[in-house]
Prior knowledge:
Layout: H1 10-30, H2 36-51, H3 61-76, E1 86-88, E2 91-93, H4 98-104, E3 110-116, E4 122-135, E5 138-149, E6 156-159, E7 162-166, H5 167-184, H6 189-194, H7 203-232, H8 234-242, H9 247-272, H10 275-283, H11 287-292, H12 294-306, H13 310-334, H14 340-351
Parallel strand pairs: 5-7
Antiparallel strand pairs: 1-2, 3-4, 4-5, 6-7
Helix pairs in contact: 1-3, 5-7, 7-9, 9-13, 9-14, 12-13, 13-14
Amino acid sequence: xxxxxxxxxxxxxxxxxxxxHNCHIADAHFASDxxxxxxxxxxxxxxxxxxxxxxxxRISSEAVGDWLTAREAFWxxxxxxxxxxxxxxxxxxDPFDADAINQALHDDRLVYSAGYGNMAKPLFMLxxxxxxxxxxxxxxxxxxxxxxxxxxxxxxMSLDGKMFIRQESLRRMLWERYEExxxxxxxxxxxxxxxxxxxxxxxxxxxxxxxQHETDTLIWHEIGEVEAGKQLGTGWEDMxxxxxxxxxxxxxxxxxxxxxxxxxxxxxxxxxxxPASLHFYFGNLSGxxxxxxxxxxxxxxxxxxxxxxxxxxxxxxxxxxxWLQVADELMQLxxxxxxxxxxxxxxxxxxxxx
Length: 354
């Protein structure tokens, strides 16, 4: 069942309203970037979040349709608006000054984040703070119920040495994966992951337990992202920013994801010996990541069939060096700053498939 939000005081409701307004402005500018199918699925779950509907509840197509029409009309009124400042206790803050806003909200046990996601889309979030701690020199903020969010709500984000692990967004993502799988119930990695939990008899308990397990996986992945960023330097982000929105961009992002996971996520999962999380990891690999790293999938299938992790462990070690080398070569090609390099970069990744 979808948890009811803890009520906010009028003072904090004003903060919530300001943050959500900026979320609407960001959505007005970027929501049209998705394919129609992806857009409609995201809007359906966004509607569920706004209405605080239980995950198992059937959503009326008519209700969603009316809401979607009204939301799109509202977004049209925001297309020329700039992001608004956030006011707390009479003090005005730039909406991207997350550190100052969090300092002002410290005693309220709320966490605010502001940054940029894929394709430079601004992302804002206001949520209840569950826990904070340090991991490998990074401050980790674990949040629960969310009071303001964008159409896109990534379960984890990293910015300037801070990691935001959004458990409500993670739980929603897990629900979406379960719902997608049960349409056809294929016998695959996702089926094995979900089979480790009692989704058929207790949906809420299964989601709660899986959320706790995958919270650790998100932290390990974000640590890998931070370490990959250190090894690649600023040249990688400069290169990505200059690429067209294309197959090449997807390929380059897949290279970095494989590097990050070889540095942290997979070593941690293998060390902890968590079968459910390993299955879930492989159930979530994108098509592009599978395409450029078939050897990793082969090692996974060997583990499933034989129960032997040696092949996976060897692939993690090989991948750590391989994908760093590929990333370095991509940046070297890019330094020429000629469009021909984009084709050469695609070819390089294809030739370097592991």
